[in-house]
Design a protein that fits this description.
By secondary structure, this protein is α+β, with helices and mostly antiparallel strands. The protein has helices at residues 52-62, 131-152, 190-215; strands spanning 2-6, 9-22, 29-40, 69-73, 81-87, 90-98, 103-104, 119-125, 165-166, 170-176.
Amino acid sequence: MEVSCKRPWLVADLGAPHRMLSWSISAPGFVTARRVVWREVRNADLPPELDALEWFRKQMRAAGHEQAVGLITSRDISRHHLRQADVEGDAATCLVTAGMSNAERVGRRRHPGPAVGTINLLLRVNRPLSDAAMVEAMSVAVQARTLAVLEAGIETMPDGAAATGTGTDCVVVACPQGRAERDFAGLHTLLGEAAGAAVLDAMRAAVAEWRAEQQAGEIWQIGGEARPQRCG
């Protein structure tokens, strides 16, 4: 996975077309793509009267990303985290951005406040998967994401309930094309172990960085002051 960051775009290039599964607003469901892209946004980009989906599609076309799976985030995309794990040759790579100002708890909902963060996560595995195994790998990625949030003790506001994610998370699972080599990718499998480890490692780092920013008073909000860039 080759990762490039030039605001407002974070690009993960997998080097060849991959099968992907996600609920991305630009390309949901099972699709074939080579790249997954993040678009950093601020208040000025998305006024209330705007058709956000059409705007995003135009943005992707203008940037040459119309064939990619696209994600939108208010998180500073330079604060991305990349982690890998290998278990006896079954390998996984995770790229994630995580902002928790839109924290939510499963089983109930609240209206998001003025600062909207999200978790956007790409999991790439090195084995071609069956459809069922891709869905199972998705479940492992979501479990790992949730565990990292619970471990960090993120609370929803204003009630202080333990958060399990954010209201606008998106997960993308990618695998090489070709005849399926794995029909299962659950917690008892080598691939499931690698996938869970990569996502958990990346998520722990991403959430810890976000928490450190809050403690330092560097709360990121859509429309807030620009941060020093960490990527070109």
